[in-house]
Amino acid sequence: MKPPKKTFIKLERLKKSFGREVIFEDFNLDVYDNEILVIMGPSGAGKSTLLNVIGQLEPCDSGEVHYHPELFEGTKVPLPFVFQEFDTLLPWKTVEGNIRLVAKDLSETELQGVLDTVALSEHRHKKPAALSGGMKQRVGIARALVCHSKILLMDEPFGSLDRDMRLKMQDFLLDLQHRTGLTIVLVTHDLEEAEKLGTRIVRL
Amino acid sequence: MKTNRSRYYKIFIIVLFFLAWEAAARFGPFSEMLFPGLATIGRRFWGLLLEEALLFKTLYSIAVVWLAMILSLAAVVVLLILSRTSLFVKTAVDLIRAFAAPIPGVAILPLVILWFGLSRTSMLLIMIHATLWPLWTQLSLAVERLSRRFSRFERAYRLSLWKRFWHLYCLGAAEDLKSALGVAWSRGWRALISVEMIFGITGSQSGLGWLLYERRMYMDTAGLYAGLAAIALCGILFETWIFRPEKAGEPA
Taking CB atoms and an 8 Å cutoff, what residues of chain B touch A88? Predict the structure, then answer.
């Protein structure tokens, strides 16, 4: 018999609006351990807003968000993001510099480990401008991984990539999740991507 | 290739200008007192250098502008930090900037003299007025741009105050700082020369503006041109080389 799934994040009766426009109302959702939860919907449906609320970047108007205490153990960044825009990488820092920025006491072994995980070992001294879109996104993922968090929040992470690179990155993410057992909450508007990656899919 | 050609053109234009100057000085209707030849100006330039007046006054002027820029930069950093924490401060500084920035430094000099007399404090205040606003304008825009770009990142990763200040904003605004310093320099430099020349603020030490003022009083026209040449050379040195903005595709 399988052990019951741990609920990492529980959203209860959430409401969020911008002015008079209600983005979502009476919204309930559970995020379980070791799953890829895909939030999908058309542009403007409030996917990124929902992710921001989950990631504590935006408050909600009403309702509650409960977090499993385990999420906050052993990490200073419990809810790391991987953003769609590559430009959240610091162009004046190298790959290594970008990763070290978020993890103060990162040992050389740990850094090498995470660079191997995202296949960027040979590029650690390069600046983002010298990397492809896929590589930049892998730096973003590496930056999230070094936070030792149990969850990864991804806001349309492959939206700016061409189709080939997007497919490669999707395979990479599936493999990464399989190896690490990370919980991933991923926002996308691409149905194909949602079906390929999602353990569960939530439509907004 | 294009750069090489442009360089040759520049050299050609300068040679042409010198030839025209020399021809006008030798064969023109002007007296030597008004329009000295290049050799006379060159000799006077060298003479002033040897007397240490030109070198000393140039260094003094550069030091005053730098001092004003450093003080202005420190003030801008404090104002930027405060404006990040309070919308009131940001609105207030923007409003004061809108009123104060268009006023040339020389225009507020009479008022400053009323308050502080013909002193070095007056000159420094004028210089700070001349350099503060260009620094504020450009750096506040840079901080706003960086803040929009990294706002979610810095909050999601809970970056410490120091990391935000240094790694995001200081390093991120480095190129803007260089160009803001360039603008501040050119405003400060012009303000200093004007202030010294018009009002002759003086003391035991004075700068290039005062040198021009003195040369005019002694009817030393060649010395006047030598002083002007020194001002132009300093302008070229700082505006074209030291604070030159990076061109696209140029290594940083």
Answer: 149-150, 152-153
Q: What's residue B251's pLDDT?
A: 42
- Please give the pLDDT value at position B248: 47
Which chain B residues contact residue A81 at CB under 8 A? 152-153, 156-157
Q: Tell which CATH classification among 3.40.800.20, 3.30.465.10, 1.10.3720.10, 3.30.70.930 matches the domain B47-242.
A: 1.10.3720.10
- Nearest CB among A52, A77, A87 relative to B157 is that of A77
In chain B, where the domains are located:
47-242
The two three-digit tokens of residue B212, written as one number: 């021009």
A41 three-state secondary structure: coil
The single residue listed with the structure tokens 């002033």 is B48
Locate A131 and state its tokens: 């990397």
Does pTM top 0.80 for this prediction? no
For residue B244, the 8-state DSSP code is P
Q: Does residue A36 contact residue A199 with C-beta atoms inside 8 Å?
A: yes
Cβ contact, residue pair B156, A77, below 8 Å: yes
Quote the CA–CA distance of A187 and A51 in Å, as a whole number.
8
User: What's the rounded Cα separation, in Å, for the pair A97 and A88?
Assistant: 13
Degrees, nearest 5: CA angle A74-A77-A80: 125
pLDDT of B250 > 70? The answer is no
For residue B192, name the pLDDT band (cuts at 50, 70, 90): confident
- Asked if ipTM goes beyond 0.90, one says no
Residues of B in contact with A79 (CB under 8 A): 156
CA A111 to chain centre: 19
Q: What are the Cα distances from residue B90, in Å, to A88, B78, B93, B101, B146?
A: 25, 11, 5, 16, 16
Which two structure tokens, joined as six digits, stand for B51? 């007397």
